[in-house]
Design a protein that fits this description.
By secondary structure, this protein is an alpha/beta fold. Helix content is 40%, strand content 16%. The structure holds phosphoenolpyruvate (PEP).
Length: 252
């Protein structure tokens, strides 16, 4: 099988308000050619989802929320529903980002609920997983990845997987300037693909896109994308700069 269609995703985290966010979105759109082999996604803060989606309406860029609730509506203060994401012009969501897990205490079970809800309403959903530095140093990387993956994907069907993207984001590499080497990333991605094959079947694993995230920059994107099991990138810091993100999108 040939390589899967790549996905380059920019997570703006808690940065940008309406004017700078719309400017950045326009600049990113201008950096995109009419690609056949890759897609681009932007996850702005909730407060400007709708404005960014409006600015990008004539582009192929996918607009995503940085997190999403499982329910359509209800008493969930501080949450955003998949229906709200869609009404604002979004068509995708991120769940399980390490900042949600580490700072806000989100568990695998909660993240699994978010993922299921997001899929039920038709959103392309990026499930983030990744080990901490102490877990890596303790030789637990693969065990942690398998555990997060099995719990994160629990009770999903093979059909659901068509709308799931997995992002491998080693926590020690996020926002630290430390990138996993291409060999470390490839090893983790191949392992993730193997486990997806065990949970579902090999053909599903072959179709599933697995992104790498953790200090992706213009200087390392080409070698990461050259790895057989790396199908794209989830980019934080460098996604806030149109020139850097533009270079990442245009990886060779
Ligand atoms: C992220 O936010 O998912 C991320 C990988 O951040 P950074 O690129 O800044 O490490």
């Amino acid at each position: 099988m040939g390589k899967r269609k790549a996905l380059i995703a920019g997570n703006w985290k808690m940065y940008t308000t309406v004017v700078d966010g719309c400017r950045l979105a326009l600049d990113v759109a201008n950096a995109c050619s009419d690609f056949d082999d890759r897609e681009v996604l932007i996850a702005p803060p909730f407060t400007i989802l709708s404005e960014v989606a409006h600015v990008l309406a004539d582009s192929k860029i996918i607009v995503a929320s940085q997190n999403v609730c499982w329910a359509e509506k209800g008493a969930f203060t501080g949450e955003i529903s998949p229906v709200m994401v869609k009404a604002a012009g979004g068509s995708a969501a991120i769940v399980g980002h390490s900042e949600r897990r580490q700072i806000f205490g989100e568990t695998d079970e909660l993240i699994n609920n978010r993922l299921k809800g997001s899929l039920a309403f038709g959103l392309l959903t990026i499930l983030c997983i990744g080990e901490t530095l102490s877990e890596r140093e303790g030789g637990q990387t693969l065990t942690v990845l398998e555990d997060q993956l099995r719990k994160g994907l629990a009770s999903l069907t093979a059909t659901d997987m068509a709308n799931v993207v997995v992002a491998y984001e080693p926590v020690w590499a996020i926002g630290t300037g430390k990138t996993a080497s291409k060999e470390q990333a490839q090893e983790a991605h191949a392992f993730i693909r193997e486990i997806i094959g065990e949970i579902f079947e090999k053909s599903i694993a072959e179709q599933t896109r697995i992104l790498y995230g953790g200090s992706v920059k213009p200087s390392n994107i080409d070698e990461l994308m050259a790895q057989i099991d790396i199908d794209g990138a989830l980019v934080g810091g460098a996604a806030l700069d149109a020139e850097s993100f533009g270079r990442i999108i245009n990886y060779k």
